[in-house]
Design a protein that fits this description.
The protein has two domains: 147 residues, Ribonuclease iii, N-terminal Endonuclease Domain, Chain A (Orthogonal Bundle); 65 residues, 2-Layer Sandwich (Double Stranded RNA Binding Domain), CATH 3.30.160. The chain is 53% helix and 11% strand. The chain contains eleven helices and three strands; from the N terminus they run H-H-H-H-H-H-H-H-H-H-E-E-E-H. Strand 1 and strand 2 form a beta hairpin. The protein starts with a helix and ends in a 6-residue tail after the last helix.
Length: 226
């Protein structure tokens, strides 16, 4: 855990908070431990108000609708997953054997939830300023946000912004395939513009498959994708 503290630039006074933030519910079975679910609940709120306040204070020329879409892009599961990957958070999460053996250490939902729990742990241990500093270290430059460049993984929002430049056009997503066993399914999605396929993608959830389809569409339109 010391290595993680060095990575995030914050040293916990109460190490039990950090340990709890890294404890997945699957690891607590038969043990007298508390999972990170309660911290995740708190972290979600801290994240939301921090991002909303930051955008409100700094993007003063943008209307409420744009601010809402930008905020959604910054707090969605895919964005949180990319933040967690940046600090290699999956390496430190304590998982039960079942989750460990089925790829839980790289599962989007697990990493996103752990990232929110980590925010809460920092908030409780060091206060709102420390939590704010941690959160804002992952936020892209304001000029990119204002220009509609959203977080890696939120390509559905970016594609919607692009399409809205032509009000007569519409997009929809379709799940066209599903494979694998219950604990390790893979979905295939297509995104259609006025009924025509403009991108396809696969993922471990329907949402992820749709995001990957949107990513392909955005790339084919000539926009930058990470």
């Amino acid at each position: 855990m010391t290595e993680l503290e060095q990575t995030i630039g914050y040293t916990f006074k109460d190490k039990t908070l950090l340990a709890e933030a890294l404890t997945h519910s699957s690891y607590t079975n038969g043990k007298n431990l508390r999972s990170n679910e309660r911290l995740e609940f708190l972290g979600d709120s801290v994240l939301g108000i921090t991002v909303a306040e930051y955008l409100f204070e700094n993007l003063t020329s943008l209307p409420e609708g744009r601010l809402t879409r930008i905020r959604a892009g910054l707090v969605c599961e895919d964005a949180l997953y990319s933040f967690a990957k940046r600090i290699d958070l999956g390496r430190y999460i304590m998982l039960g054997k079942g989750e460990e053996n089925t790829g839980g250490r790289d599962r989007r939902s697990i990493l996103a939830d752990a990232f929110e729990a980590l925010i809460a742990a920092i908030y409780l241990d060091g206060g709102s300023d420390k939590a704010r500093d941690f959160i804002l270290s992952f936020i892209p430059p304001l000029e990119k946000l204002a220009d509609g460049v959203y977080m890696p993984g939120d390509y559905k929002t970016l594609l919607q912004e692009i399409i809205q430049q032509n009000p007569e056009e519409s997009i929809e997503y379709k799940i066209i395939g599903e494979s694998g066993q219950a604990h390790n399914k893979q979905f295939t999605a297509e995104v259609l513009l006025n009924g025509q396929v403009i991108g396809s993608g696969v993922g471990r959830s329907k949402k992820q498959a749709e995001q990957n389809a949107a990513k392909e569409a955005v790339g084919l339109m000539g926009y930058e994708t990470d």
